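Lecture 7, part B: from sequences to assemblies.

Below are the input chains for today's worked example.
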Amino acid sequence: MATVLSNERLTASVFRLAIEGSFHGEPGQFYMLRSWDKSPLLSRPISIHDLTSTAITFLIRLHGEGTRLLSRLTSGDQVTLYGPYGNGFPKPGGNVALVGGGMGIAPLLFSAKRFPFSKVFLGFSGEPFAVASYQALHGDVVFQSGGTILDAIDLNSFDKIYACGPLPMMAELRRRTAETAAQLYVSIEKRMACGIGICNGCTINVGTGNHKACTVGPVFPAEEVDFDELLEL
Amino acid sequence: MNCLSSELAGVKLRNPILMASGTFGFATPVAKLYPLDKLGGVVTKGLTATPRSGNKGTRLCETPSGLMNSIGLENPGIPRFLSSELDEMTRLDTNIIINLGGSSIQEYEKGAAMIEEACKQRKSDGKRSADLLELNISCPNVKEGGMLFGLTAGQAREVVRVVRQTTSLPLLVKLSPNAQDLVRIAEMCETEGADGVSLVNTFQAMAIDIHARKSVFRHGYAGLSGPAIKPIALRMVHQVTKAVTIPVVGMGGISSASDILEFIMAGAAAVQIGTYNFMNIMAGASLADELQTLMKQEGISSLQEVRGIV
Ligand SMILES: Cc1cc2nc3c(=O)[nH]c(=O)nc-3n(C[C@H](O)[C@H](O)[C@H](O)COP(=O)(O)OP(=O)(O)OC[C@H]3O[C@@H](n4cnc5c(N)ncnc54)[C@H](O)[C@@H]3O)c2cc1C
Ligand SMILES: Cc1cc2nc3c(=O)[nH]c(=O)nc-3n(C[C@H](O)[C@H](O)[C@H](O)COP(=O)(O)O)c2cc1C
Ligand code: FES
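Predicted structure of the full complex, as structure tokens:
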């Protein structure tokens, strides 16, 4: 159990939840959260948005019942969270671009903090959110509302690209980077019951066979991911 | 003597709490969270003679108090399990139960034979081996028909007979609640020499995505587990314990010490915890202590005292 420090509404559907404590993690890793007893049944996987020595922060979009309950937490409320789980973005070398689409920007704040030489691209379909926190931390932030943020990226100038966002965006990025030298890594979302590799609920089939998104992922090299298969779900 | 100590098919259990197949993987990830000597035993993910990649599409879907799954028996295959996972599991201080699945009699037989040979080899090498075999004749997610065996007594009999002849491990047969006549199948298992039965596996269930106008699951149906099924599972365990003399391992929706006592009072020799692991990943760390506390409150000094009392 941990205690909520603050819960701020950033837009009608996005909130930032800060929880007190000395937590661990690497960019792209996630925690399993719940603030309820037995219903809904499963905990919710949420990426590390920010981490300091005294708090962990999550950036969350309202989706269904679980995120609705998390959105209602206020300072002093109790949350159960386990993690950090999974493998995040690999240690970067060379020029790195962090590309987020919509809610996919969530893991990139902590990534930008840990990878200070990266360039950050944030794309939104509607009202932008949380951009100021990226700008406060990092000199090089490009953001855009509407259209596709991918058009703003000179894909040839990066050695590594770390992306998180809607599947169609990541599939398109994969297509566009196929001919470049950039290595693309994507963070994939699958439904998860356990987060630690014991339920086989989150399997994704990548080039090298079946992998669990919760332990081997959620970050995978894009060339291994079968986007068509994932988009079909 | 510890008031929780139990026995199952000749195997001594520290307590009656076992972790159910498919909800505990191969146990080692959980051993990093809490010591598994808190448990009576762990059941492996269902294993088949050859590896299975499992079902495509959505594999999990929550319901009020329940969970539907369509994993499709994804597993590394018995040879891989025997050469790597089993070795790691034998370092854990708890009983090991291998869950055997299959989609044909030949596949079950082959799987049982490989397990038998490896366990014998380990023993002659002086190494620890598995303690029990749980034969799953009821996995509802395998299209080729794993579940069919759970459905009619005739088909089930053949599988149980073949596996019984092949294995020297104490044998539990895991039953499907979807079977037409659960009690008859349990009686058949006893006749064929099973050392116990375990029940229930998941209930066949369905969810529809109204936007896509399709089933949520590619295979159409999925298996329902969790607290939602507990009252039905309890009734089935009660019926079966009255019909057979071999021990019955009860499960289905257990999510508290008091649920465990209900299954024991219905006649179960031991219980398995499945979906509750996903509601509380630390469940196994405290359930045994909670059960002991509850027994004290209720003035129960041993499980034997209340087993089958209802
Ligand atoms: C590794 C990982 C990291 C994530 N990080 C974030 C984040 O930082 N911020 C954020 O807002 N969201 C994140 N998500 C998505 C988030 O987990 C879902 O939006 C959330 O589980 C929805 O729960 P719900 O009860 O509100 O919605 P419901 O639709 O009611 O949920 C029903 C079931 O589906 C599951 N589910 C629904 N959507 C998703 C999804 N996209 N991914 C996985 N499971 C889903 C739920 O967990 C639940 O079991 C992440 C997902 C994963 C897998
Ligand atoms: C995700 C998941 C995977 C499962 N896999 C198996 C399996 O491989 N073999 C098996 O015999 N039972 C399997 N089961 C069934 C459980 O072992 C148990 O019988 C069932 O879930 C009912 O118990 P519960 O309500 O406590 O979960 C699985 C259940 C779940 C939820
Ligand atoms: S969420 Fe259970 S194996 Fe990945």
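Note for the exam: The helical segments of chain A are 65-71, 108-114, 131-137, 167-177, 227-231. Keep this in mind when comparing with the next example.
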